[in-house]
Amino acid sequence: MTTATEVKTELTATTGGVRTALAGVSGYAGGELARLLLKHPRLQETRPIFIGREATTLSELQPHLYAIDEQELPVVPYPTWSELKAAGVEIIFLATPHEQSREWVPQILNAGLRVVDLSGAWRLKSASNRAVYKLHDADAELAAKLDAEAVFGCPELHHDAIRNARLVANPGCYATSIILALRPLVAAGLVDIEHGIVCDAKSGVSGAGKAPTAKTHFMHAADNLSAYAVFGHRHTGEVLEQVGLPAEALQFTPHLLPIPRGILSTIYLRLKSRMDKAAVEQVFREFYAGHPLVRIFKAGSLPQIQYIVRTNYCDLGFELAADGRRMVLVSCLDNLLKGAAGQAVENMNVMCGWKEEEGLL
Amino acid sequence: MTTATEVKTELTATTGGVRTALAGVSGYAGGELARLLLKHPRLQETRPIFIGREATTLSELQPHLYAIDEQELPVVPYPTWSELKAAGVEIIFLATPHEQSREWVPQILNAGLRVVDLSGAWRLKSASNRAVYKLHDADAELAAKLDAEAVFGCPELHHDAIRNARLVANPGCYATSIILALRPLVAAGLVDIEHGIVCDAKSGVSGAGKAPTAKTHFMHAADNLSAYAVFGHRHTGEVLEQVGLPAEALQFTPHLLPIPRGILSTIYLRLKSRMDKAAVEQVFREFYAGHPLVRIFKAGSLPQIQYIVRTNYCDLGFELAADGRRMVLVSCLDNLLKGAAGQAVENMNVMCGWKEEEGLL
Amino acid sequence: MTTATEVKTELTATTGGVRTALAGVSGYAGGELARLLLKHPRLQETRPIFIGREATTLSELQPHLYAIDEQELPVVPYPTWSELKAAGVEIIFLATPHEQSREWVPQILNAGLRVVDLSGAWRLKSASNRAVYKLHDADAELAAKLDAEAVFGCPELHHDAIRNARLVANPGCYATSIILALRPLVAAGLVDIEHGIVCDAKSGVSGAGKAPTAKTHFMHAADNLSAYAVFGHRHTGEVLEQVGLPAEALQFTPHLLPIPRGILSTIYLRLKSRMDKAAVEQVFREFYAGHPLVRIFKAGSLPQIQYIVRTNYCDLGFELAADGRRMVLVSCLDNLLKGAAGQAVENMNVMCGWKEEEGLL
Amino acid sequence: MTTATEVKTELTATTGGVRTALAGVSGYAGGELARLLLKHPRLQETRPIFIGREATTLSELQPHLYAIDEQELPVVPYPTWSELKAAGVEIIFLATPHEQSREWVPQILNAGLRVVDLSGAWRLKSASNRAVYKLHDADAELAAKLDAEAVFGCPELHHDAIRNARLVANPGCYATSIILALRPLVAAGLVDIEHGIVCDAKSGVSGAGKAPTAKTHFMHAADNLSAYAVFGHRHTGEVLEQVGLPAEALQFTPHLLPIPRGILSTIYLRLKSRMDKAAVEQVFREFYAGHPLVRIFKAGSLPQIQYIVRTNYCDLGFELAADGRRMVLVSCLDNLLKGAAGQAVENMNVMCGWKEEEGLL
């Protein structure tokens, strides 16, 4: 439990450095984000403010953070956004359900705070893609403006827009793994879009959330593999918009892996014309020059989930058929880090003018 | 869904062989029991009747039984016990919560059926041991009589009583693994009881039941190990009563293993006087002669969970210290088979005068 | 150890029923095959003869078979094929490396035995596809004749040829899962072959064999996923030949799953023209009518590895995009059973005129 | 590959801060140690020198360290100890087999370097306990002197001796978990030693080493649990010596858990006289005051492996029976960190006068 005095102390304005707040600290992504923020070198002067429905402590919600949280860090029951602003908060992270984020963001921006939203509420530019989230807006006109204003928080693609953004929509985990793999080739006009692209993606169970369900029961997930949401996963829209693809060009099938965390996407495409491996590798290396959190594997070796679990890297590798056109791309990342909390910190870094990788290596 | 016609068909009396019914087919033990009954060589003429709260089908509740259940086997909404009797049912299996079993058993016996109850409701002879289940009896006097009458369904210990029993209380999973390991040595008066016995037991997640909870979430159970119910697990009373031990002689600590099924109990005791390995092995071999579902390992090799998963065996092995007195016993079984559904079938076999292992190898 | 007397006893001719022999009982597929043969209802009169490099016992090589092997079943050091024939053996199973099978099969056939070979030695009709195995034949002419004579042991495709075959080449595990999924649609001329087919397949670790390697080390396989043999897996040729596809039409990528057993193949294709789900389902149902070991899922529900592990089923399901042309097929089987040992028994059943599923449900 | 120029560069003396070297970087503990040293805040000026049998690179031996190792850190073929000394190395870590460590340590000390040895070569004070390692010394007299001089590298027990030690013997993983749990109670004279203590310990597969063996094969370790080395594990001597127990007082049984890393030890003992929980907790808190890497759980909650995996903590918790005497202690740590590489860094920290936890939180 957090006492009234502790709440007051938390909400007292501080002078040093950038201050952050985090709503939604009880889930997996929120827990990882709390951990990253607490040890971030730029945030040592002013601890993040954790806010939640009820007064509690961080280690109550995330027992494995007991390590960091020796002082029983308070979780403050929802203050007003103005109180957070008055306490010196500049950036607030929302690791909340998309309905909640959709409702809160206009208020938060109005209070003068910047937001990194980890939900799907503000990621999509096209209304038809957004339909999958069944969003209800109190002020539809304002929401439409914010939809247009929101920056898709993929720092490797939108660094400069993120630098000045008020509202950053942190990408989905599957979407990040696929967008980072496809964007360099598609942007260079190398891919036979008409032929279509197959994305066969596999994710660990943390991607299914913390709520205990029949699907997340150990007896269902362990020693198993299953495909789901075939032709209908919510992250499809993000990939289409960010890579620049027509809907019929992408076939995306997610699978539930019997492991705690990690995503591996196997992507099948055809190049418009014959290329050799070195040239393809070069396209990737140039695209991600200056972005150390995307690692390009040498042609002939492929990423594996083990290499990226508990890191903030996205690893990319590929194989090319003898015809120099059929290509298999493999993209790996940790769904809770580069696919969620780590990318959120990366966005904060960019928003503050720090290096993308600060606090993430 | 099961139709009224199907229900009527199910409840029509048949002429061939022994007929059984099963309540509680939705859980893990119930599912295994359904599977075993459906392929039991003695039950091929008259299929078991599955009963449940709502009309449904077996494969709806247990998708992996779709194999056996090509005809969409009906689950019949609770009939009366007399209807079951009239349909020719002789033995009913209850894989239901203990409160339910406690309420139903007097009615079922009254209707002239025999029962194998898989819950903890009727296992304990001592009222103080029973207290842990917080049982409420409509007719306390009758319940006390039935407590006295109930036979603890461990065929290796109580074969003859089970043969004629109306009410068989199928043992707990941990209890089975510990009782089968300890009983031969204690019964022979070889164990230094006063010194005390330590049972460090480890079970797969299916032992925690099918309900999705924080504890059974893949993210909690996987890559983890935890002790629980230290000094307070419900199965303790069964061990004390069946092995014949005073309460202070037994320290039993269960642990949750990151595997679907299987129990391994490591048991530490002292012999009253020095013995050699061959003599100890002989005690076990003689005790279990004629009981092929308990396998004795040669001194120097130990059981492992892998050897017994998906079998109805209980494997026993041991090591003896150089002093010839300190002993480590290792006992392994599949908690859903020898620790639950398989042992229930074994009890049915004995009740019907068949071989213990029939349909179980 | 197996004594000379035991060897002699094993090789004594018996009178009852069909007799079998098995070479290569030490591996995973060989162990499963031993288990299936020992409990096969048609083989109860005359136990299979297990042969190997050295005299030993079955439970020495396969400790988990200790259950079945109470009598310490002997493994006989390689007898001559004539000795096996004289002992009444009709069918010999080879669960040996492909070089070994390639060398032995001509000798075995010459001795008048029939063979089910579980290796890749005799599966491929096209010499160029066969090149991947780097086979060396003592008598190239004879080998070519046998290549032509060998029947690809997929009972659902080649029942009648298997019935009379001397040499049955048991299919690869991945190949079985893909062939059974694709053959009905391709045979009916429904698939847009020119567009190409993507097979993204995932297999448990038992598929990588029993030899301890860096790849099969628990620390590498657990909590991981990796793609391998991209554009170059040996099973590709089987799929091309049996489904009837040109090489460039198939992109097959296998992955190593962190589970002991089970294969799930996710297959992406386009139909030549628009179809509805019911029509597609009907194609599958008709193709596999009378073949109970292939189960067709209702449109809208998909197979999972959990449903088929430790069974001999191949489960098939699919989803169709709104355009009625883009299709995702999911095919699941246990790589050691329907993908190896179980299918070998199925072949024996057909060779002997028994039902495909005998001893396999 | 590492070139001659790179080797020369590595072995050039530097001026800034403490310099370290590490032999044995190919194994699991060595890999973790490399990772920890590379990111240690006190070692940023002068990178550790990695030495090995052959010239290679760190990421060749430890692909998951590719992240840190962008510059392809060289592994230098064994230089002489004097060359290391001349290059400014003060402390050398040996993550080598115990025979190797036994041979090298006298030479290394002679060259004026300090050593942290992760093997079992120098941990034991009693020659009879040491016998289990079958050590052969070129100079037995010198070896005996060094056996006496070596400091058991448990900073929570021997901080001051480690501060000035030339030779620190880094404790075994199981031993660390048991010693830290037992020492406070035994040192305070609270434990009924004569009654005996049972340590039932369970470890992840990384404890079995990187060599692929039948035991470490995924198919053996996964979904399994097995006891091993009953009455004969090598770490027993460390526990006896460091806790201060006669041999017959300790029964220690290790088990192989189906998880990559983590140890949980369940320890059963009797107190000499009745105590309450608060008093027991106080004993632990006082003993470990000022040692933040040992965390004491509040009475009533117990450590789990999940809380300590990939941390350098040892978590301790306990339950007390109603009699106030029978106690169950639970101790958890990561066998590669607090049980090996992390504790080695902790020892370096103490040797250099830094805080125990520096670079480890």
Automatic annotation (TrEMBL), chains A, B, C, D:
Top-level taxon of origin: Bacteria
Catalytic site positions: C173
Domain Semialdehyde dehydrogenase NAD-binding: 19-165
Pathway the protein acts in: Amino-acid biosynthesis; L-arginine biosynthesis; N(2)-acetyl-L-ornithine from L-glutamate: step 3/4
Any one of the GO CC terms: cytoplasm
This protein's record includes keyword Secreted: no
Localization, UniProt: Cytoplasm
Principal location: cytoplasm
Keywords of the record: Amino-acid biosynthesis, Arginine biosynthesis, Cytoplasm, NADP, Oxidoreductase
Any Gene Ontology biological process: L-arginine biosynthetic process
EC number: 1.2.1.38
Catalysed transformations (reactions): N-acetyl-L-glutamate 5-semialdehyde + phosphate + NADP(+) = N-acetyl-L-glutamyl 5-phosphate + NADPH + H(+)
InterPro entries: AGPR, AGPR_AS, AGPR_dimerisation_dom, AGPR_type-1, NAD(P)-bd_dom_sf, Semialdehyde_DH_NAD-bd
Signal sequence segment: none
Molecular function GO labels: N-acetyl-gamma-glutamyl-phosphate reductase activity; NAD binding; NADP+ binding
Matching SUPFAM superfamilies: Glyceraldehyde-3-phosphate dehydrogenase-like, C-terminal domain, NAD(P)-binding Rossmann-fold domains
Family in the record: Belongs to the NAGSA dehydrogenase family. Type 1 subfamily.
Function field: Catalyzes the NADPH-dependent reduction of N-acetyl-5-glutamyl phosphate to yield N-acetyl-L-glutamate 5-semialdehyde.
Name listed for the protein in its UniProt record: N-acetyl-gamma-glutamyl-phosphate reductase
Organism: Terriglobus albidus
Gene expressing this chain: argC
